[in-house]
Specification:
CATH class of the largest domain: Mainly Alpha
Number of helices: 18
Mean pLDDT: 91
Number of domains: 3
Helix content: 40-55%
Distance between the termini: 43 Å
Low-confidence stretches: 209-219
Oligomer: single chain
CATH architecture of the largest domain: Orthogonal Bundle
CATH topology of the largest domain: Citrate Synthase, domain 1
Largest sheet: 3 strands, antiparallel
Number of strands: 6
Length: 427
């Protein structure tokens, strides 16, 4: 382990700090004792150059456009494994050994998917049309009162029960939040259906459970729809120390109930600069309206005096094509060929936006490529997912990552309460 020196030019004092050799990516400087030894602290708005934790969960190489979960490339996981397999990988450190173990884990989640009847009564307290993200955050907070013993977990069995319980229940909660918002009766889980199929069933079916009698009178749930949504969940399972994950860790650092920390993460994800971006992308594609208008909107995006911002392009970390966006683009084309019809009008506009932007020097110089939000809204719409559920879909996908990150923090004996400093400029 090497060191790096910091010299105070005012006093000529020299301070040495250890260099941490990460297993992947650039090295880091251990500035944890910077204030104690040098009497100064670093200023890093947005924490873009600051690591607040050590982690083994996911890794992003922004220059290469690479994302790994526990060392596995996300593209390979999407191609070879189910979302529930990836859940097991994130919270339990390993993928299922065989098909039997995979089915057993999925079946456990199905049995845990039912909600406490007391929680169901909560939904009626929200007004008609309430955004599901607001209801969802509140519902997860209530889980902390129903399963209060998770506040003091002692061993791996406790950790796994906490994580598996909320991973299992979150699709049910999302479905109930939506159905309550539109005044539809709740549909309870069916343990004969897989994790992803169950979610679609709870969204669409009538109380008698006849799959062809859905809310919109559409056809039965197909294996192609299940597979597509499964892939979307997997692509969202974890993504380093993003705003919502950092929120979960920060809140968990106070010793609060884990579900309260996750509820805070849900609130953070709701923002249009984070998980709510896919809703904004779809709205913007409708605003553009026609492929002939694309150039005009691209010009607006380049005009520093115009507040218009091109949604679905650019990422805080990626300086290359987001690998998740590549998978989604291919998935969109594949589904369209196999019978799940995309909105061709919006799809053509999106492809034209990408084509023009990726050939424009303004976007090339700034490394602005499509991100995970750019095509996800078009696919979710084709899967008959209501727009207001786009971000809750993100919550379902991200839940195993939040649980893994939270457990990683709790298990770390050296973890401290989060307490950044501030550059005070007041009187």
């Amino acid at each position: 382990m090497g060191t790096i020196s910091l010299i105070n030019n005012e006093t000529n004092e020299k301070f040495d700090f250890n260099i941490i050799n990460c297993t992947r990516g650039p090295k880091a400087v251990d500035f944890s004792k910077l204030f104690e030894t040098a009497g100064i602290f670093s200023y890093d708005p947005g924490y873009g150059s600051t690591a607040g934790c050590e982690s083994t969960i996911s890794y992003i190489d922004g220059k290469k456009g690479e994302l790994l979960y526990k060392g596995h490339k996300v593209e390979e996981l999407v191609a070879k494994y189910k979302f529930t397999d990836v859940c097991k990988l994130l919270i339990n450190e390993e993928l299922p050994k065989d098909e039997k173990e995979s089915k057993e884990f999925d079946l456990e989640l199905r049995h845990r998917s039912f909600l406490h009847e007391g929680l169901i009564n909560l939904f009626s307290a929200f007004p008609d049309g309430a955004h599901p993200m607001a209801t969802l955050s509140s519902g997860v907070s209530v889980l902390s009162t129903l399963y209060f013993d998770h506040k003091d977990m002692e061993d791996e069995d406790d950790y796994q029960t906490m994580a598996r319980r909320i991973i299992a229940k979150i699709p049910t909660m999302v479905a109930f939040c939506y159905r309550n918002s539109v005044g539809a009766p709740f549909i309870y889980p069916d343990i004969q259906r897989s994790y992803v199929e169950n979610f679609l069933y709870m969204l669409r079916a009538y109380p008698h459970g006849k799959l062809k009698q859905t809310i919109k009178g559409t056809e039965e749930i197909t294996s192609l729809e299940i597979e597509a949504l499964d892939k979307i969940f997997t692509l969202h399972a974890d993504h380093g120390q993003n705003a919502s994950t950092t929120t979960v860790r920060n809140v968990a650092s106070t010793g609060v109930h884990p579900y309260a920390a996750i509820a805070a993460g849900i609130s953070a994800l709701w923002g249009p600069a984070h998980g709510g971006a896919n809703e904004k992308v779809l709205k913007q594609l409708n605003e553009i309206g026609d492929v002939k208008n694309v150039d005009k909107f691209i010009d607006r995006a380049k005009d520093k005096n115009d507040p218009f911002r091109l949604m679905g392009f650019g990422h805080r970390v990626y300086k290359n094509y987001d690998p998740r966006a590549k998978v989604l683009k291919n998935l969109k084309d594949e589904l369209d060929k196999k019978g799940i019809r995309m909105d061709h009008h919006l799809s053509e506009i999106a492809q034209k936006v990408e084509e023009v932007a990726l050939s424009d020097e303004y976007f090339i110089e700034r490394n602005l490529y499509p991100n995970v939000d750019f095509y996800s809204g078009i696919i979710l719409t084709a899967l008959k997912i209501p727009t207001q559920l786009f971000t809750p879909i993100f919550v379902i996908g991200r839940m195993p990552g939040w649980c893994a990150q939270l457990l990683e923090h709790i298990k770390n004996p050296h973890a401290r309460i989060t307490r950044p400093r501030q550059v005070y400029l007041g009187k």
